[in-house]
Specification:
This protein has 79 residues and is of the alpha+beta class. Helix content is 44%, strand content 37%. The chain contains one helix and two strands. Strands 1-2 form a two-stranded antiparallel sheet. A hairpin with a 5-residue loop joins strand 1 and strand 2. It is elongated. 8% of the residues are buried. The mean pLDDT is 88.
Length: 79
């Protein structure tokens, strides 16, 4: 059995209508998927799944960061 390891760093920036940077968020996630015939994945499928899992993990982290700052973001955007 072998494994596919993916590390992904995602950055999201929020700008106002005048293109001023309001906030920047960054998250890094690492995922490892074991590949075996009985799991039903070949290496290409495992790589795609590992990438997708790492992306989802990082985006969920960024979503939580944004939710913590939602009031400050709204204030900066004038809402």
């Amino acid at each position: 059995m072998s494994g596919i390891k993916t590390a992904m760093d995602i950055e999201v920036e929020i700008y106002d209508l005048d293109e001023n940077l309001i906030a920047r968020y960054n998250a890094t996630c690492e995922r490892k998927l074991h590949v075996a015939f009985y799991h039903g994945y070949n290496k290409d499928d495992a790589r795609r799944k590992s990438n997708l899992d790492a992306f989802k993990c990082a985006m969920n982290d960024i979503k939580n960061q944004i939710l913590q700052d939602v009031h400050a973001i709204k204030k900066k955007l004038g809402e």
